[in-house]
Amino acid sequence: MMNRFLLIYSILLCSIYSYATESFDSSNILDTIARDYRNFYSSPVCWQFGAGMGIAGIFANTTGDGKIQDWYQSDLRNSRTDNFAKYVKPFGNGRWTLPIYVGAALLDLFSLENEPLYLLSNWGKMSLRAILVGAPPMLVLQKALGASRPYEATSKWRPFADNNAVSGHAFMGAIPFMTAAKLSDNNALKSFFYICSSLTAISRINDHKHYFSQSLLGWWIAFLSVRSLNSKENRNNFALSPAADGFIIHFSMTF
Q1: Of 84, 106, 119, 140, which is least surrounded by CB within 10 A?
Q2: What number is the average pLDDT over the span 223-249?
Q3: Which helix (H) or strand (E) covers residue 246, if one does?
Q4: Is the model's pLDDT at 176 over the cut of 90?
């Protein structure tokens, strides 16, 4: 029920934003969202999506998830990590964050010449767009892969047996920090925001609500969703160079 609420709520709020802008041009926002979807489902991003699923699948369907969970719960978790998780978990709660994104997006109604307000407005718009792009595959995979929570069963993928294979909190909690990183030109600040984007995902492991693979998938879908907001940043560089005993594959990704 919460997942359905999250998807419907985000669509409604984004629609409210699109009709409340100065131009009242709904076609503009629809064209933008359509472009975001084309970018997200482009060949390079699909390969990256598959790679992320492959890595998560290795942990989920072997003893990897269980070992990480046991190690974290027995060796790392304490009252301090519990308190920390309590503070970062709300970033992944759409009931609280979605109205904030809409409010930020609507700031462009008041002043486009004020640089802080302009950046904050863009941050809100981009966060909403990323959710609209990433929420559908996230919700589908939650059920399709069928994994359970740590206190319920193992992390093994059992199609349609359960609905916890992807952490929704990890997805939602990563969005605001990744969009902030995308808007920043300072590399140190970008790095800081990307580190912060993982905190809600870590809190779900700490709270024994999700396995590592499930938190990873939520974070990865958020990452690809935000990168899809600009087609230029979806370009990854591959190169094949000859070497003495074969070939060397070079790969680079823009963050």
Answers
A1: 140
A2: 58
A3: strand 246-252
A4: yes
Yes or no: say if 196 and 173 are a contact pair by the CB < 8 Å rule.
no
Sign of CA dihedral 237, 119, 100, 10: negative
What does each C-alpha distance from 199 to 37, 41, 67, 70, 152 come to in angstroms?
27, 27, 20, 19, 23
Q: How far apart are CA 232 and CA 223, in angstroms?
A: 15
* Alpha helices (H) in the chain, listed in sequence order: 2-20, 26-40, 43-60, 64-71, 79-88, 94-105, 115-145, 168-183, 187-196, 199-206, 212-227
CB 193 within 8 A of CB 181: yes
Lookup result for tokens 């974290």: 72
Of 90, 40, 61, nearest to 231 by C-alpha is 40
Pairwise CA distance, residues 205 & 70, whole Å: 10
pLDDT digits (tens, 9 = 90+) for 82-110: 999 999 999 999 888 988 998 888 887 77
* Rounded alpha-carbon distances, angstroms, from residue 87 to 80, 92, 196, 254: 11, 11, 12, 30
Provide the token pair at 135: 């929420």
Burial of 34 (0-12, 13-18, 19+ CB in 10 A): exposed
Which of 100-104, 112-116, 237-241 is most confident?
Answer: 100-104
Is 114 in a helix, a strand, or coil? coil
For all residues of the chain together, what is the average pLDDT?
84
* In the predicted structure, residue 42 carries a pLDDT above the cut 90: yes
* pLDDT number for residue 169: 96
